[in-house]
Amino acid sequence: MATKPKSSKKAPAKASKDQILKYYRDMLLIRRFEEKAGQLYGMGKIAGFCHLYIGQEAVVTGVQACLKDGDQVITGYRDHGHMLSCGMDPKGVMAELTGRSGGLSKGKGGSMHMFSKEKNFFGGHGIVGAQVPIGTGLGFANKYRGNDHVSVAYFGDGASNQGQGYESFNMASL
Length: 174
Ligand SMILES: Cc1ncc(C[n+]2csc(CCOP(=O)(O)OP(=O)(O)O)c2C)c(N)n1
Fold this sequence. Notes:
- By secondary structure, the protein is mainly α.
- A two-stranded parallel ribbon has the order 1-2.
- It has one domain (about 15-174): Rossmann fold (3-Layer(aba) Sandwich).
- The chain has six helices and two strands; from the N terminus they run ααβαααβα.
- The longest helix has 26 residues, at about 15-40.
- It binds thiamine diphosphate.
- Thiamine diphosphate (TPP) binds near residues 76, 127, 157 and 158.
């Protein structure tokens, strides 16, 4: 007689009230920041591209909550929310969007090109899918160094047919 499968129901994740409030504030910061960026873009104060992260706040906040100091993050061009979530200075991000020398890339990178060595944020990439092999390289560096860090590479469904993504998955599985 077949044995009854064990329940796959997992215990609910535990988070304190303070942690949950922090996640809410983190999400709200992204939402309000992006609303303002969208407004400034409409007013012609932001040059070039400006891809907003509105509606995806919970994705980055939830993943970030699982990371530890020293883990790396990399994403595509829809990156403002990721930078805020990594703890990069919102004023530095906004200054970059508006092309100021006080911006995180001295006003020369714009919306899609900001990085932070300190926060282990590796960009900010305008080429769809390009972040996947770089993220794989970051993961390989962790393995090579024997640390227990993880590298998180975000990509959208539009990037999922890029050959370099499949090359990366192959190499990672090897
Ligand atoms: C290699 C490459 N091809 C095409 C483009 C033009 N392009 C910019 S955004 C985009 C759609 C990407 O969709 P997805 O990865 O799902 O991200 P989303 O905008 O939905 O967050 C494309 C094709 C590009 N930037 N890079």
